[in-house]
Amino acid sequence: MSSNTLAKTAPAAAGPPADAGEGQPRIVSRPRTGQWLAAVVVLVLLALAANSVIRNDAFQWDVVADYFTSASVLRGLGLTLWLTALVMALGFALGTLLAVMRLSANPVLRAVSWGYVWLFRSMPILVQLLFWFNIGALYPHILGVRTVDLFGPITVAIIGLTLHEAAYAAEVVRGGILSVDRGQIEAAQALGLSRLRRWRRIILPQAMRSIVPPAGNMLIGTLKGTSIVSVIAVQDLLYSVQLVYHRTYQVIPMLLVATIWYVVVTSLLSAGQFYVERHYARGSERTR
Amino acid sequence: MSDADAGRTMVDIKAVHKSFGTLEVLRGIDLEVRTGEVTVVLGPSGSGKSTLLRTINHLEKVDSGWISVDGSLVGYRRDNRATARRASGKGGGGGRAGKLYELSEREVLKQRTQIGFVFQNFNLFPHLTVLENIAEAPVSALKRPRKDALDRARRLLDRVGLADKAGAYPKQLSGGQQQRVAIARALALEPKLLLFDEPTSALDPELVGEVLDVIKDLALQGTTMIVVTHEIGFAREVADTVVFMDEGRIVEQGAPGDVLDAPRHDRTKAFLSKVL
Description:
The complex is a heterodimer.
Chain A: H1 2-9, H2 33-55, H3 61-68, H4 71-102, H5 107-122, H6 125-133, E1 141-142, E2 145-146, H7 147-150, H8 153-178, H9 182-190, H10 195-225, H11 237-248, H12 251-280
Antiparallel strand pairs in A: 1-2
Chain B: E1 9-20, E2 23-34, E3 38-42, H1 49-56, E4 64-69, E5 72-73, E6 76-78, H2 80-90, E7 100-102, H3 105-112, E8 115-118, H4 130-140, H5 146-159, H6 175-187, E9 193-197, H7 205-220, E10 225-228, H8 232-238, E11 241-246, E12 249-254, H9 256-261, H10 266-275
Parallel strand pairs in B: 3-10, 3-11, 8-9, 9-10
Antiparallel strand pairs in B: 1-2, 1-4, 4-5, 6-7, 11-12
Helix pairs in contact in B: 4-5, 4-6, 5-6, 6-7
């Protein structure tokens, strides 16, 4: 009652919002005309673009559909997938070793690790692949075997991509390890945990929280990056579609086949990353 | 601990020096702690008290001097032959000479399992549950069967009043609860000696009491402890010996009644007048 009286005596325009008798006063947002306008413009442009893609017969969507699940394309996809998985696994194994070396107390190990990362990050991956492909020019025979027999295209692809990957993985893992609080290591030492146990049980699981997002980035980058091995005639996804369009000249639809597959796999990997991140975030405040 | 052990020397610190770069943080520390006693170390920030505590379990290496816990040197092995030769050849003064050889990491880790350490910032493992935090060291360092370690961890949790938090992650607990878990984790190794590095300094004021109560309880049961703290009331109530440090030296030590109520040195008086 008394608040009603107050509301009546308060000036209408200025002053604090008074209780209007019907509970709390309603909040009226300012109109967002500009936002609506921008949204409409963008949607119209998108629709125009989609229309032109669908209506333009030169895209040859029927060819895309024909080859999308053809045996040679699927074989190429398979190779791309296992090459990516293998390179990631080997690259991160070597990268973790390099990161631990870089953080060790031994100045020689630190310098070697630094030098490795410096060298392999400086060298374009394409140059590296060509170099390994032609290694026979430097060493015609290795252990009594002809080098060209030893370094086939697939082997060269695995070696080149792994060495390249490891240099980046080393920095990602090192960043993750550095993100672990120094007190965690001291607590583990004070409890008498062995060096291996400290790494496996305390440091790396916590480092994983910072490692997973950039590692997910690298995985997706590697998936597409493996397409570079097409230059040394490894039959990955890209090379498989190239083989087709060299024969049929249907360049655009065949490139679309490869692109759509890359998009599909990338989407699946992104979804997987979400679950991996959630696993390693257990015990942290932000997940709860 | 049996009564027969009481009064034996548990920690013996002799002429310990430690520098970080050009900064000398410990300038010749001598201290003896007897079994079953509580020693509280007081002093202003930068007086070297935390560093001293960390040298006792070899988290920091000393530059000179030595520390023994329960009769064995921390972090080093004395070269007995050299010591004996010098002692017989040059007389009594040479008995302390000879060389101290650094122990292997495995040996240092084994020593550390006998010395519990409680940190200012708890340093619980955030990705492990409370129960896993406590059982980790008994399983991996003492090779206890996992089931036994978990059973014992539950009993320790009960002892610090947190029986219902076994499955929680550390971040879900208050600071006081986290520090009580950290104490339980240190106790899980059944250490001969417990070291506390400002255990209540990171806590909200209203949570200090619950942690001090747990430490008091341990003191009453005859646990040998060295506690670095700013809690003067705790020192008065629980300490057998109070040590006051300043600029890397022990300025004075004695019974709490003497050091806290009738300090002899001006530096101690000045410090106490500010914190009391």
